[in-house]
């Protein structure tokens, strides 16, 4: 049938409301007689569920302590993004994708941008809820140009514009797993336009 059953709609919607990062179809459903209609229906259900208030709020670890610095930075970035007006995005420079993964556990209407040079990390981040993965190679950049180059990329991609704030996370030692230890709130201005 080209129309989903009520149970199928509830299953997909509940997965979204439960905070799942991605939904997928079984081979049987994806290769059936109505593959395009199936994807379109699932897309409508996901987008509808994401508009619900419960899908936009999060109580993730609200009363728990943290044991890792990178986790603390990621969750602090999301808290700031949800409470500071004018924030366009959260940008996470990452070598593995771990910081955007942790950040994605806190619901927000803002994009989380995973900036990584590793194609493996980029593919991994493409599955995280609310995360946009962009290639960003920091290996040949001077530390002083990292922030401006990241902001210029976000402006180029239409994610941020002059006048916006961007919350940026990164490590003092780039390309070190678990090294995220810095959170900055940066202002986008005209010099970040290409």
What does this structure look like?
The chain is α/β, with parallel strands linked by helices. It has two domains: 6-56, no CATH class; 69-192, Pyruvate kinase, C-terminal domain (Pyruvate Kinase, Chain: A, domain 1, 3-Layer(aba) Sandwich), CATH 3.40.1380.20. It contains eight helices and five strands, in the order αααααβαβαβαββ. The protein has helices spanning 6-17, 27-30, 35-50, 53-56, 69-83, 98-103, 119-125, 146-156; strands spanning 87-93, 112-116, 131-135, 165-171, 180-187. It has a five-stranded mixed beta sheet with strand order 3-2-1-4-5, sandwiched between helices. A hairpin with an 8-residue loop joins β4 and β5 (180-187). α1 crosses α3. The longest helix is centred in the N-terminal third of the chain and has 16 residues, at 35-50. It is elongated. It starts with 5 loop residues before the first helix and ends in a 7-residue tail after the last strand. The mean pLDDT is 86.
Rounded mean pLDDT score? 86
Q: How far apart lie the N and C ends? A: 49 Å
Q: Number of helical segments?
A: 8
Find the count of extended strands (DSSP E, 2+ residues): 5
**Residue windows where pLDDT falls under 50 for at least 5 positions:** none
> How would you sum up the global shape?
elongated
Backbone CA Rg: 18 Å
Structural class: alpha/beta
CATH superfamily of the largest domain: Pyruvate kinase, C-terminal domain
> What is CATH's topology name of the largest domain?
Pyruvate Kinase, Chain: A, domain 1
The strand order across the widest sheet is 3-2-1-4-5
Give the fraction of residues assigned to helices.
25-40%
| Largest sheet entry | 5 strands, mixed
**CATH architect. name of the largest domain:** 3-Layer(aba) Sandwich
């Amino acid at each position: 049938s080209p129309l989903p059953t009520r149970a199928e709609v509830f299953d997909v919607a509940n997965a979204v409301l439960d905070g799942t990062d991605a939904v997928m179809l079984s081979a049987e459903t994806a290769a059936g007689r109505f593959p395009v209609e199936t994807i379109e229906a699932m897309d409508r259900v996901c987008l509808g569920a994401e508009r619900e208030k419960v899908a936009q709020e999060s109580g993730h670890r609200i009363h728990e302590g943290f044991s890792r610095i990178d986790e603390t930075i990621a969750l602090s970035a999301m808290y700031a993004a949800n409470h500071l007006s004018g924030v366009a995005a959260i940008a996470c420079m990452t070598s593995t994708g771990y910081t955007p993964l942790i950040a994605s556990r806190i619901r927000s209407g803002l994009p989380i941008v995973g900036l990584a040079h590793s194609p493996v990390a980029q593919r991994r981040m493409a599955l995280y809820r609310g995360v946009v993965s962009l290639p960003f190679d920091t290996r040949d950049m001077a530390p002083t140009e990292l922030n401006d180059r990241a902001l210029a990329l976000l402006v180029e991609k239409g994610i941020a514009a002059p006048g916006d704030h961007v919350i940026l996370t990164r490590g003092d030692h780039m390309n070190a797993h678990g090294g995220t230890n810095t959170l900055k709130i940066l202002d986008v201005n005209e010099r970040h336009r290409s």
